[in-house]
Amino acid sequence: MFSTFNLTGYNEEAKSDLIFEIDELLDLIQGIYSESRTKSKISFIKLQILLGFVVGTVWVATLFG
Q: Which residues are listed as membrane-spanning (predicted)?
């Protein structure tokens, strides 16, 4: 399942290009992951605000009936 890269046959420029591309890919994946987490946090905050508004409206309606 796991594979290792043997880079002994490649020149130094190809090795550094490959490492740079892998680093860029990892940065992209991390950015997508953190963006999705931020969106879910924002959605959760919106849900809490909406729930608070509904509960507050019901409370005021029962208070002033």
A: 44-64
What pLDDT, on a 0 to 100 scale, did the predictor assign at position 1? 44
How many CA within 13 A on the CB side of residue 63?
6
Detail the DSSP E strand segments found in the chain.
Answer: none
Q: How far is CA 40 from CA 10, 43, 44, in A?
A: 43, 5, 6
pTM assigned to the model: 0.45
Predicted local distance difference test score (pLDDT) of residue 54: 86
Contact criterion met (CB below 8 Å) for 16 and 8: no
